[in-house]
Specification:
Shape: elongated
Number of helices: 8
Largest sheet: 8 strands, antiparallel
Structural class: alpha+beta
Length: 500
């Protein structure tokens, strides 16, 4: 037995069972899901979540980062500088500059750009000048001396190229491809008595060697910073337990894509049941998020991610609930007993007089979401199984109803909140099986429709109030917009970073 449901201008059939609608492990697969699977002709693994960083976002991050560095420079103790200076044929003067802190810094805005040739970034800064102070230690033969120093480094220029990649586990990786540092001039003044005078004389004579040492320390510091960042990326989770029922997999599916104006990352974005670990019976479809250069960030979320979550929860057995009479509010004039239900199923009070009832409400298949430019549609194939409860608690099966429904919803962002609305497009109720004989389902369908209207009203009230957009401890989203496309939704936004 089949019934046709109007599905946004097309017709979808809900059939009780057929050979062509079966896949291993599933009782019945609706034709519109079957079509979704067989239309999938992708090779490899397509990302279900896309993240785009635009040049606007890159430049904002650079500006905020430069300001943060400027504020923190006075708190930094620089690495020791160790070297030696030939004094005479009798040996060398070994020196160490230690405890170096910055007292003043002229920190110009750095330059950062996407570099598609290396799939990464190119960064540079020029005109950097720094005044520092610290302690010095020297050793010449058996003579050791100490004192303090003041050093000024002028005209520092640093250029580095960073390459992005993907490791075997799907983490984002980063490496320093090249680093070039140039120091324009160094002025080092030492204090500490007669030994300081000897050290000062040696410093003036071998200034170029000291300048070269500083240049080397700059690039080694850059490379050490990138290595530490790589270790942090390696330690980041690419799998997250959402709750006890489902896990979200978010590894990269391919190498980062870098153009002159953006960085594009693709993530797996799949939920799966922690109970069954089964892959969903459909594949992620290729999609491209439209470029939004006027926003800092864009995130594309395909219907695959949402449907994999639906399948994960369905596989974990969550889409079912048992309803008894005590769960129905007193102001609703419906009671779950054979006497009241006799108005809808006449044979119930005759066959099972004066018994309480309960209902098992469950999904026959996982609910399927489809994203369209105008709306998000949701197809739900549900069922209601009714039982009579004998005084000793024994459950007597009565009948099973199939309840197939279609919903259409919209979502938008306003006032920093995600809001939405939902409406029922269609509902069909049919008798799937009966232990009490056949009966008409028209009255039951009207009752279910009335209940659905009440539920929709309460749901839309809550959706209209909206939920706050996520806000991190030191950042919030601003100027956020949500757009719906065929097969995915896109969220584009600016960000405001609040550093402390």
């Amino acid at each position: 037995m089949c019934s046709k449901v109007d599905f946004h201008g097309t017709y979808t059939q809900f059939c009780s069972a057929s050979a062509h609608s079966r896949l291993p492990g599933r009782k019945m697969l609706p034709p519109f899901i079957t079509l979704l699977i067989f239309l999938s002709c992708t090779c490899g693994e397509n990302p279900a979540v896309r993240f785009i960083l635009t040049d606007k976002g890159l430049q904002y991050g650079k500006h905020v980062g430069a300001g943060w560095v400027q504020d923190k420079l006075g708190l930094i103790t620089l690495p020791d500088i160790i070297g030696e200076i030939p004094i005479s044929i009798f040996g060398t003067l070994d020196y160490t500059l230690t405890g170096t802190t910055i007292t003043k810094c002229d920190f110009p805005e750095p330059f950062v750009e996407f570099d598609q040739n290396v799939t990464g970034f190119k960064t540079s800064i020029s005109g950097l000048s720094v005044a520092m102070t610290g302690s010095w230690m020297t050793q010449y033969l058996l003579i050791e001396s100490t004192g303090s120093f003041n050093i000024a480094v002028f005209g520092v220029a640093v250029t580095s190229v960073l390459k992005l990649g993907k490791d075997a586990d799907g983490h984002l990786s980063i490496a320093c491809v090249s680093c070039d540092a140039n120091v324009g001039d160094v002025d080092l003044q030492v204090n500490g008595g007669i030994s300081a005078w000897i050290f000062q004389h040696a410093v003036n004579h071998y200034k170029e060697q000291i300048r070269s040492k500083i240049e080397g320390r700059i690039c080694s510091g850059v490379k050490e910073f990138i290595i530490n960042m790589e270790h942090h990326l390696e330690a980041m989770n690419v799998s997250f337990d959402v709750d006890q029922y489902v896990t979200l997999e978010l590894p990269l599916t391919g190498l980062p894509d870098v153009s002159t104006s953006s960085l594009n990352l693709g993530f797996k974005g799949e939920f799966y049941s922690t109970r069954t670990h089964k892959d969903p019976p459909f594949e992620a479809q290729l999609f491209a998020v439209p470029q939004q250069p006027d926003y800092m960030l864009s995130v594309g979320l395909s219907e695959y991610t949402v449907n994999s979550a639906s399948y994960g929860y369905y596989s974990s057995g969550l889409f079912q609930v048992h309803v008894n009479d005590s769960m129905i509010p007193p102001y609703i004039p419906v009671r779950l007993n054979t006497s009241y239900m006799g108005h809808l199923v006449p044979q119930l009070p005759k066959m099972f007089p004066g018994l309480m009832m309960n209902l098992q409400v469950y999904a026959r298949e996982f609910p399927l979401f489809l994203f369209h430019p105008a709306a998000v549609s949701l197809g739900v194939l549900g069922a209601i199984k009714a039982f009579a409860i004998q005084p000793n608690g024994t459950k007597i099966p009565l009948f099973t109803l199939n309840v197939d429904s279609e919903f259409s919803s919209e979502a938008w962002i306003a006032g920093g909140k995600l809001k939405g609305s939902v409406g029922m497009s269609n509902l069909t109720l049919t008798l799937a099986s009966s232990e009490v004989g056949s009966f008409k389902t028209d009255a039951l369908e009207r009752l279910v429709r009335m209940g659905s209207v009440v539920v929709m009203m309460e749901l839309n009230k809550r959706l209209g109030n909206g939920v706050d957009l996520p806000r991190m401890k030191q950042a919030e989203l601003v100027n956020t917009v949500l757009e719906q496309y065929e097969g995915f939704i896109s969220i584009s936004t600016d960000a405001q970073i609040l550093l402390t």
